[in-house]
Specification:
Elements (H helix, E strand, L loop, with lengths): L1 H7 L7 H8 L1 H13 L5 E2 L3 H14 L15 H11 L8 H15 L4 H14 L3 E2 H9 L29 H140 L4 H61 L5 H36 L11
Parallel strand pairs: 1-2
Helix pairs in contact: 2-3, 3-4, 3-9, 9-10, 10-11
Protein name: Eukaryotic translation initiation factor 5B-like
Keywords: Coiled coil
Amino acid sequence: MLRYFSSKAEGLEFTLNHLIRLYRPQLFRGLIKLQHQSSKALFASNDEDKYRGWMSRCCLDTPCGHRPRGLGPKISCIGVVSEMRQALPEEETESPIPKMGKDNKRKRASKPEDPQDKKAPAQRLRKKFIHVDVDSVHQFPDDEENEGEVSTLVPRTRKPVEAAKPSEPETSPHGNKRRSSLNDASTLFEEAHRLFSQAITKFKAELSQCEAELKKSSDEEKALRLLCDQKEEEIKDLRADLAKARENEAELDKQVKADCNRWKENIDWLVADKVDALAQLASAETQLRGIKVTNLAQAKKIKELEVKLTEAGAKIAEARAEVERTNATTDKTINVYLRYAEAVQTELREASNREKRSKELAKCQSWRETLEEIHARGFDLTEEITQIRELETNARFLISSDDEDSANGSEGREDEDGVPEEEVPEDA
């Protein structure tokens, strides 16, 4: 664990003192107080003074109520201090270290003693306390393989306290107080070590949970990034397709406009042809009306002749030949005019049919040309083109047949009109 935090904090070596301060500031203050009260250091280290000064200074700046969330039991700084005061009631006025200094001054003033005898009680009191090496302390977080096990400090066995010499009755009360205070301090330190072990185990569990959450979030981030890349590629493809579609739309618009202009021209041409055909039809109708008028006039003449014939009864025999002649000529002319009227009507019908067929032929030609242009651009319209060509050939055949029929009819009419009047048979 210390190696993990040291790798995260670049340029700084993360030690056990840092870890204690990170999870239990009030616990570290208790350890500092024990360190000041004891005559021997709790942790044997070369950089002891440096870390002690730094950690004690940081611990004093940290508020008592500051504690990370969800780590360790809820023990306040005031409770630790109250327990220490209950265990050491005489520390409220002054610490045992100055008292020991006063007793030593009294001993020096009363009688001179050997310096080795003065050092003996202090050495015996130092042997009572628990000695912990830095290597044994750093062993707790380094065992990350056994995360379920709780690491513990190995206390050294305390040697039995030697009985006070009868020649030094003045030092026994201070020794008892010091022993009691050190015993309380050792129990307090064991309790602190137990709390620290619990905090370490909980911290390991939370650390593993945080690592799992971090891995999960990183996997989700990778998946989201892959999804974003895929969506960006799809958007690029869609943009390219949209650009192509717009280009095709512009080309189709141009083509449709050109076709519309061509169709408008064809429509104008057909309208002009229709106007011409209507003019021809109107002229034919006027001619037919004139023929009808002439026929009426001839009928009137016939009636007049009949009246004259009745009036001239005597001249009936003489005038009968003339009347029959005139009747024959009139009948012939009437038949000629009737045939001419029928021919005109048939011509009008044929002209209208020819106009319709020419329109159909023009439509077929224009439609075939448009289909051929579309087919030239890559569309498969072979069947439609063949059908349109068949319709065009049929229309052309009908138009040519109508032209031949009209030519034959005109020749026949000319032959009939060229018959002389003398060849008409006379009635007996």
